[in-house]
Each structure stands twice: as C-alpha cells, then as structure tokens.
Specification:
By secondary structure, the chain is mainly alpha-helical. The chain has helices at 8-28, 45-69, 74-86, 88-102, 111-128, 131-134, 154-169; strands spanning 137-139, 151-153. The protein contains 7 helices and 2 strands; from the N terminus they run ααααααββα.
C-alpha cells in the first residue's frame, strides 16, 4: 500500500511526460505504419495508440469509483471487484473491439486532442485532491490488467496509466519508438 503523502509533482510530471511523448509518436509515425501490426497484440499501431489514450480515459472512471466506494464499507468494494473479475472475459472483448472501433472516431488526426483533454482533466483532479484522499483506496479487478492490484490507493490509480502506456509503447512498430 502506498503512503498517503503522494508526490503530486511526480504524478503530474508523469502525466505530462506521456502527453508529450504521445504527440511525438503521432508526429513521427509514417503513413504506412498506422495500419501495420503491433508486436504482441492483435491491434494495428493506430488502434494500439488509441488504446494507450483509453488507459487514461479509464482512470477518469476509476477515480469516480474510488470516490464512491472509498466512502462505503470495504465489503461493497470487494463485492464490486469480485463481480468485475467475474466479467473479465466480456471486458476483454469490449476492450479489444472497443479500441478497434474507437479509431473510427478518435483516429490519428483526433486522438492527440483527446489525450490533451484527458490529461488536462487528470491534472486538474490531481491538483484538487486532498492529502486524506491519497490515503483512500479500494479493491480493483486485478484480472483486468497486469498493473491493477487487488487493492489500490488514489496515488496508485494516478500512477497506473503511465505504467499501462509504457507497457504498450514497447509494442508499437513505428519509427518514433526508441527500442531499448
């Protein structure tokens, strides 16, 4: 479990790092690379790039869940987590096909602006969080994502999208990606 005194500056810097890097990827991806397959997923580069934005969009919803369940008895969040874990298979289908279909709206020309709006929203939320909120946490469906833990604090929720982003960034097959 994380300590309540979260490093807001580090969390804010990580959000900005991803936003800046995402725009770098958008500007350096060549015309032929958008539809190319990625490394280790069934998505194209364009679909995976949207999925990376989607990770930040999900955090907006996770923050709402934390605010709701963080004030309820722990059993309510555990029951919700068990229900969501039981729905992993349908979630995976929605996650995969949703990212695939979303690029029809948030394609290469629009996903940068979406990322900017989502990051700006998360930055505003982060600035307004109280110290006591950083001590709150709840149960999450750890089967949904390798970076979800059974119990996550607010600070861990703010860290999650950067971990998700970095994981998928390595799977892109575009010239703007610097491979280790």
């Amino acid at each position: 479990m994380s300590q309540p005194n979260a490093d807001r500056d580090a969390l804010a810097a990580d959000l900005e790092r991803a936003r800046t890097d995402f725009h770098h990827l958008l500007s350096t991806t060549g015309d032929r690379e958008w539809g190319a397959p990625t490394d280790g997923t069934r998505w194209t580069n364009e679909e995976l790039l949207f999925h990376m934005v989607f990770g930040y969009m999900i955090v907006q919803k996770l923050l709402v869940l934390l605010r709701l369940f963080g004030h309820l008895p722990a059993g309510a969040a555990r029951a919700n987590s068990r229900l969501l874990n039981a729905a992993t298979r349908p979630f995976n289908l929605v996650n995969f096909y949703g990212s695939r279909l979303a690029t029809r709206v948030y394609n290469r020309r629009r996903m940068g602006a979406k990322m900017d709006r989502v990051i700006a929203s998360l930055q505003r939320s982060l600035r307004h969080e109280t110290e006591s909120n950083f001590a709150r946490g709840m149960q999450y469906p750890e089967r949904w994502d390798p970076y979800f833990r059974g119990y996550m604090t607010l600070a861990e929720i703010y860290r999650y999208p950067g971990q998700h982003y970095d994981h998928h960034r390595k799977q892109l097959t575009v010239s703007g990606v610097r491979k280790p």
